[in-house]
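Final report, closing paragraph on structural work. Over the funding period we assembled a curated collection of sequence-structure pairs, and we close with a single example.
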Amino acid sequence: MIVAAFGVGLSVIGLIVYLLLLLNAYVTPAAVLLVLAPLFYVFWQIRLGKFSELIPEERNLLAGLPAKSLDRAAALICFSFIAVGVVDCLSSPMTHWDAIASWDKWATEWALRTNMYGRLLGYYPQLLPMTTSVLYKITGTAQETLSLTNYALHAFQPVIGFVLVIAVLRLAVVMNVAAWPS
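Its predicted structure, as stored:
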């Protein structure tokens, strides 16, 4: 449930940013509302006493994973790799080619715009740059060479990797198959 909500949440934010750009309405107050709306929803659910419905009963995300040694080893390797990535991401800004030349560059470009007219997308997916542009839009640091926003977005990258690995493992449980077939 949480993994699905994470993916759906990122997709919805990206779609709303896209629609705001189409409507020439991607401005800072809209970005702030985009971040505050889910927080307001959770607060409202807590106030109504329905917050427990938002949290699944199952606490162990990997419950039911087949005890195959390959699955366990692959999961351990993936989580170890992500742990190393966390250390790198928490201690440095984006430094590698794709992050600088495309993802972060596109995110800052989207943050500086209020519409999408006259923008060549180059057939590259823009969900992540549009979603991360919200933070640049709110902080107003899109034109800074190396802002704290860059560090924050870099620290967010391992979260995406972690959620993807959890999604693969949970899908294996639901389908009752090996996560990494041998």
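The two ends are 28 Å apart (CA to CA). Residues 89 and 154 are 5 Å apart (CA to CA). We thank the funder for supporting this effort.
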